Amino acid sequence: MKIIRNCASNLRKFHRVLRWKIYEYNNKIRKTGFYLKPVHMVIKKSDNRKNVYYYYGRYWYKLEIRYEGRRRIKWTYVGTSKPLPHIPEPPMNPLDNCTIIIKDDDVYVDDRCYDKVVEICR
After folding, report:
1. pTM for the whole thing?
2. I need a surface site. Which of 14, 46, 98, 116 has the fewest CB within 10 A?
């Protein structure tokens, strides 16, 4: 793991831009019942510190709406590959298959994703 100092705020800005692109994409494919989640975030607390883990990838979910006395929404994970061939390709994500850990304002990243993250932090 390599450390990139003072980069977390830039990475969060990138994440906000990516999130809006995915919102637009999911709105286009809404009628299929499938949705794309581009990043899975996990927060771990230890010793009064908060570490945020970002796992970038293509996580596909199916939305099911059930009526069991009242309306219930259920998200079902269906995998990392596109569930239907006619769904258009999702927007490019330069951090696909990267794991990033944010501690305070520093970013920890593995060697294969280091150059991509440095480019985003510029």
Report:
1. 0.82
2. 46
